[in-house]
């Protein structure tokens, strides 16, 4: 089989431009071939001359890659893992798997910054927030965080920022908090000068220097306890109390807020999301009203549109780090949106009664398991437990080995030990557990200890009880959203009603600068659903995860070769976490050398938005470096600061090509200057899609960088997450990359831990494996070249109507270009936000607006878009340019025109009354070239300020019904 491009190689399916398209575009730019063009764009001294690689694959068809990956996946051993510790088996209902996880309308959409064309995913995330509020009893929840460990670290950081006594620097962590969570806390605490102390629930230490406490329910040994008295003690000393709580346990026990807790965090993995060797999974974060301005990440809030429709949009401090820079309280600029959406549909599908049934069954099974173990002579400790039990026994090693023979992984006790050193075993039951499984476990244990006859009298007690712990006494999740969609028919229809409100890559190009909205091919995504990848517990024995080891090893070799650095860690589960990990590596290196004064981090104004916040989190002081009129780093200003601070400089943090969309000519000279004073160069990999296969950061002086696999390497954005931000480092910094342990980290240990699992969101790494395997070096190089070609084609097509703000060598841009509209307001009263809304009428998602320069738009077409789509976008922009001219020339009113009133909805178009001074056709069908493409915004222009003044981030029963029925957002 061959494609219209002449081959069945994957890269010819991935690229939007055929050979003829390429020739047309090159001819327009004045070139005969792509190499000649690229040589004019990328500085000669950094171009990678060798077009071969002994490490990167050669490229292949999707059939070949899928067959090879299937063989690799078979190297994983699919076991029934009852290890627990925050990761549990469950069942994703097939209606959700097929219509959400595997539906490009859900996984190819972007963060809902253009709310009018994102009402579907905003409602799904709003449902997620409502579920969290209903579970925890708090009035405020965000739209998810990265994982439980980092959510706990965010709770600690928020408590630190909100503390009354600014001299308090001790954070108490209850002894039953997961050790891997403790390690993430330790890494986050150290640069902030926070001291962690473990304590037991019965022994609360001196309060004088304490600003916060973290509890875990149930804890790592499965125990629950009533924290009311402990919390009241803490509050008397104005200590902020946070709790990690399992949402399935929270289904049964009374809302954690009613115990007096101030902040609740946890993982929603149990709500229908596979373990996937560690992720991605949506964490939640909920708190009392007084902390709503400090809550990290994204919040979806209700507001009104221009025409009075109840609508949703991102609220409050969303993207605050791009504005506040080093003063931001968090570097989180992402979420786990797709996973949060899956969890929300899981809760909707089961409803409160279904969730309660699942949770009660676990408790019943756990009680029966314990009772039978006691009958077999095992000593079961007293206490309240949810789904887990720890048993210490002289038979421990034999039981673990017998469990393996029977297809089970148990928790090895003590944690962090091996089977050979174990003195106990732990079992955590889950949604997949049933009576047969319990009997199978008891049978092989009884046989092992020669008490088989004792099993003959086993009877399963159907009684449910959690001893003395307070349970829910009032109804919850009573909104219609949780009662109307329990049939597959209704849920399927609801999923699609929401999906059709959203603009995604299904509908057209999403030319968002810095976001790289490229094709996420079906072949790349298919393996995510394979059981041999999705069902693996992150703490499974290494001999069961050889498939994942191979995938990760391949990716490490390939990415190391692509960026020209020694080694890679895949632990960071977002770009922001990759930044943090890279900067921690630099900081840890200097600490190991005793160079404790190197705390200055130079960050150009052209760097990526989260960089300053990440630097502060990692313990650096930020020094801002100016840019010149061409958008380049001001080398004179950089030199002055380097000379002034000299041996205090730890790092320069830059983005390349710069966020201004140009290849800076002096990049080698800049790196050499930092190295001359003993500092390191950190590269934010946000714009790596302009470099892959053409130049290597490690070759021109970069020491450490993170990559966005959800940009350059094809993992979907999923409506604002998941993401993966692996960090690559030179040989010098490699020893300081993130590590992982199930044992508490020592405060003075230089190890860094940035997420709960060793390899972060491992289950989506096969997507990038497939992309690199199928593309090969030549395909990657061609993809990069086409991305740069497409950006320059757009810039060339629009330059006579709009000002291109920054250009690089020979007046070319990199893979994105910035259009300057800074004088628009004075001439017309319009802003770039108005242009973004008008593009909706042209059936486009707007480019990135007002960043990195206010009142500009940044366009990045990527290599996946075809010439017809690029031309459609250029036509739309030029027609909007004509509309702007009409306003400038007073042909159209400045305060009532087709741009300022955009987007126009179908409801407005079919209404009897049309109140605008222009035609319906001009409003809604503005193209001069005939087209069948039309995307309708479901709501008119949204009022953001109203929503922030009247924050509503969950659907209260008293407010009404569901957003779909227009009674409640």
From TrEMBL:
It catalyses: N(6)-[(R)-lipoyl]-L-lysyl-[glycine-cleavage complex H protein] + glycine + H(+) = N(6)-[(R)-S(8)-aminomethyldihydrolipoyl]-L-lysyl-[glycine-cleavage complex H protein] + CO2. InterPro entries: GcvP, GDC-P_C, GDC-P_N, GDC_P, PyrdxlP-dep_Trfase, PyrdxlP-dep_Trfase_major, PyrdxlP-dep_Trfase_small. GO terms for cellular component: cytosol; glycine cleavage complex. Coiled coil: none annotated. Its cofactor is pyridoxal 5'-phosphate. Residues 12-443 form the Glycine cleavage system P-protein N-terminal domain. The keyword DNA damage does not apply. The keyword Ubl conjugation does not apply. Residues 783-904 form the Glycine dehydrogenase C-terminal domain. Keywords: Oxidoreductase, Pyridoxal phosphate. GO terms for molecular function: glycine binding; glycine dehydrogenase (decarboxylating) activity; pyridoxal phosphate binding. The modification N6-(pyridoxal phosphate)lysine is found at residue 711. One of its GO terms (biological process) is glycine decarboxylation via glycine cleavage system. Its EC number is 1.4.4.2. The glycine cleavage system catalyzes the degradation of glycine. The P protein binds the alpha-amino group of glycine through its pyridoxal phosphate cofactor; CO(2) is released and the remaining methylamine moiety is then transferred to the lipoamide cofactor of the H protein. Belongs to the GcvP family. The glycine cleavage system is composed of four proteins: P, T, L and H. This is glycine dehydrogenase (aminomethyl-transferring). It comes from Prochlorococcus marinus str. GP2.
């Amino acid at each position: 089989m061959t494609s219209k491009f002449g081959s069945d190689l994957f890269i010819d399916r991935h690229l939007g431009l055929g050979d003829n398209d390429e020739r047309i575009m090159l001819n327009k730019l004045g070139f005969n071939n792509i190499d000649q063009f690229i040589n004019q764009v990328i500085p000669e001294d950094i171009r990678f001359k060798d077009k071969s690689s002994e490490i990167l694959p050669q490229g292949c068809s999707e059939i070949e890659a899928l067959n090879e990956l299937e063989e690799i996946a078979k190297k994983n051993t699919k076991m029934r893992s009852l290890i627990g510790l925050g990761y549990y088996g469950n069942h994703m209902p097939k209606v959700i798997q097929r219509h959400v996880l595997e539906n490009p309308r859900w996984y190819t959409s972007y963060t809902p910054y253009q709310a009018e064309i994102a009402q579907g995913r905003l409602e799904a995330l709003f449902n997620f927030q409502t579920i969290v509020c209903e579970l925890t009893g708090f009035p405020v929840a965000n739209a998810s965080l990265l994982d439980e460990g980092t959510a706990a670290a965010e709770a600690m950081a928020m408590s630190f920022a909100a503390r009354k006594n600014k001299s308090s620097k001790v954070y108490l962590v209850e002894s039953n908090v997961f050790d891997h969570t403790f390690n993430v806390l330790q890494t986050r605490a150290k640069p902030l000068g926070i001291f962690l102390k473990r304590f037991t629930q019965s022994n609360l230490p001196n309060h004088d220097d304490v600003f916060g406490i973290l509890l875990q329910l149930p804890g790592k040994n499965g125990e629950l306890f009533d924290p009311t008295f402990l919390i009241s003690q803490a509050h008397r000393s104005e200590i902020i109390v946070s709790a990690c709580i399992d949402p399935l346990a929270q289904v049964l026990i009374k809302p954690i807020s009613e115990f007096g807790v101030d902040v609740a965090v946890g993982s929603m993995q149990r709500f229908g999301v596979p373990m996937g060797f560690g992720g991605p999974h949506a964490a939640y974060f909920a708190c009392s009203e007084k902390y709503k301005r400090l809550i990290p990440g994204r919040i979806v809030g209700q507001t009104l549109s221009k025409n009075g429709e109840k609508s949703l949009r991102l609220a409050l401090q969303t993207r605050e780090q791009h504005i506040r820079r080093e003063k931001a309280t968090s570097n989180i600029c992402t979420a786990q949106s797709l996973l949060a959406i899956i969890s929300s549909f899981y809760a909707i599908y089961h409803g409160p009664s279904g969730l309660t049934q699942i949770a009660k069954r676990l408790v019943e099974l756990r009680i029966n398991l314990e009772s039978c173990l006691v009958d077999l002579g095992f000593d079961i400790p007293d206490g309240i437990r949810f789904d887990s039990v720890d048993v210490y026994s002289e038979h421990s090693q034999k039981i673990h080995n017998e469990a393996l023979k029977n297809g089970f992984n148990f928790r090895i006790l003590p944690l962090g030990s091996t089977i050979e050193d174990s003195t106990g075993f732990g079992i955590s039951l889950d949604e997949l557990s049933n009576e047969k499984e319990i009997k199978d476990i008891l049978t092989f244990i009884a046989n092992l200890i020669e008490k088989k006859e004792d099993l003959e009298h086993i009877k399963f007690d159907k009684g449910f009880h959690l001893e003395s712990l307070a349970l829910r006494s009032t109804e919850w999740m009573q909104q219609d959203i949780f009662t109307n969609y329990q049939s597959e028919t209704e849920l399927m229809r609801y999923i699609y009603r929401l999906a059709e409100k959203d603009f995604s890559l299904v509908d057209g190009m999403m030319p968002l600068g810095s976001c790289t909205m490229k094709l996420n091919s079906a072949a790349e995504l298919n393996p995510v659903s394979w059981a041999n990848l999705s069902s693996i517990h992150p703490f499974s024995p290494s001999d069961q995860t050889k498939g994942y080891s191979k995938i990760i090893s391949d990716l490490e070799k390939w990415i190391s070769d692509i960026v020209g650095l020694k080694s890679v860690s895949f632990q960071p589960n977002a770009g922001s976490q990759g930044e943090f990990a890279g900067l921690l590596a630099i900081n840890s290196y200097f600490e190991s050398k005793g160079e404790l004064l190197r705390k200055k981090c130079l960050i150009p104004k052209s760097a990526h938005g989260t960089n300053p916040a990440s630097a502060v989190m990692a313990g650096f002081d930020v020094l801002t470096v100016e840019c010149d009129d061409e958008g380049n780093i001001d080398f004179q200003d950089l030199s002055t600061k380097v000379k002034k601070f000299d041996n205090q400089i730890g790092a320069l943090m830059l983005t390349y090509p710069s966020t201004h969309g140009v290849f800076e000519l002096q990049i080698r000279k800049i790196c050499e200057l930092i190295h001359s004073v003993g500092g390191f160069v950190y590269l934010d990999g946000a714009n790596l899609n302009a470099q892959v296969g053409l130049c290597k950061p490690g070759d021109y002086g970069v020491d450490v960088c993170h990559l966005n696999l959800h940009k350059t390497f094809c993992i979907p954005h999923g409506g604002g997450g998941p993401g993966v931000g692996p960090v690559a480092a030179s040989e010098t910094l490699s020893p300081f990359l993130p590590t992982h342990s199930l044992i508490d980290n020592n405060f003075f240990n230089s190890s860094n831990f940035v997420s709960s699992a060793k390899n972060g969101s491992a289950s989506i790494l096969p997507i990038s494996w497939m992309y690199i395997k199928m593309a090969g070096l030549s395909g990657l190089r061609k993809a990069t070249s086409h991305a740069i070609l497409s950006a320059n084609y757009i810039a060339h097509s629009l330059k006579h109507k709009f000002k291109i703000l920054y250009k690089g060598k020979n007046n070319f841009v990199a893979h994105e270009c910035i259009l300057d509209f800074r004088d628009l307001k004075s001439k017309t009263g319009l802003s770039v936000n108005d242009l973004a809304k008008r593009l909706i009428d042209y059936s486009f998602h707007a480019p990135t607006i007002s960043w990195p320069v206010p009142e500009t738009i940044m366009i990045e077409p990527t290599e996946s878009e075809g010439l017809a789509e690029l031309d459609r976008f250029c036509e739309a922009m030029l027609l909007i340019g004509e509309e702007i001219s009409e306003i400038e020339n007073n042909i159209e009113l400045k305060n009532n025109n087709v741009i300022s009133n955009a987007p126009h909805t179908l409801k407005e178009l079919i209404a009897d009354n049309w109140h605008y001074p222009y035609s319906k056709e001009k409003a809604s069908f503005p193209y001069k070239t005939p087209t069948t493409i039309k995307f309708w915004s479901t709501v008119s222009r949204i009022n953001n300020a109203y929503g922030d003044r009247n924050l509503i981030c969950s659907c209260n029963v008293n407010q009404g019904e569901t957003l779909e029925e227009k009674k409640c957002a």
